[in-house]
Amino acid sequence: MKGFIFKSLLDFTEESFGLAFVDEMISEVELDSEGVYVTFESYPFAELVALASYVSVQKQIPMEDLLEAFGLYILPELISKHDYVIKDYTHPLDLIEGIEAHIHIEVRKLYDDAELPTFNNISRTENRLEIEYTSQKELSHFAIGLMKGTLKHFNTQGNIEMEKLTHKDKTTKFVIELIN
Ligand code: HEM
Q1: For the chain, which has fewer Cβ within 10 Å, the N-terminal or C-terminal residue?
Q2: Cβ of residue 152 lying under 6 Å from some atom of ligand 1
Q3: Taking residues 50-66, what's their average pLDDT?
Q4: Domain boundary at 23, 41, 61, which?
Q5: Gyration radius from the chain CA atoms
Q6: Number of neighbours of residue 114 by Cβ within 10 angstroms
Q7: Using CA positions, which residue lies closest to atom 33 of ligand 1?
């Protein structure tokens, strides 16, 4: 996973729990990188899991809640750092619908060895999107945080339902419904 994501996790942890806690985490968790991350470099996903697990255990926050909060936190950063990618979107569901065919394609041009998930758009009306997310990493709670962040970015409100599909491997279905 890209250094960009690791750096954001450290920032998120610092803003939530302070610099002393980040310092303690970096010395306690066994890290090949020693906690120094370069935006465009790749680091083992296991290292991200180790850092998030440390926060989850020490601060007694369920991993799922932590990943969702991290997704919500990182979305504005993803947008501001890559604004040329999303500048033409005016509707949150257009943006989410465009991840697979446009946004993550642009991401791959920038970060050539990025390990990206697959999104499959199932159905769409003006205010409702059904979409399936497939990833070896199974970061569905991170994904829901990113989706909630996207709704917030456009000042819209909505409900997001999540259902783990048993008939499709490593796939979660999301139904996003905007409230007018
Ligand atoms: C400006 C918009 C976006 C940018 C620039 C962006 C970029 C990225 C980058 C750089 C990664 C990490 C890849 C790696 O480290 O190897 C990533 C992963 C991911 N992105 Fe996006 N992304 C954007 C929007 C979204 C949105 C709206 C979603 C909503 C669900 C999303 C879902 C994910 C997920 C779930 C991952 C984790 C990888 C996995 O699950 O396998 N992204 N994205």
Answers
A1: C
A2: no
A3: 98
A4: 61
A5: 16
A6: 16
A7: 143
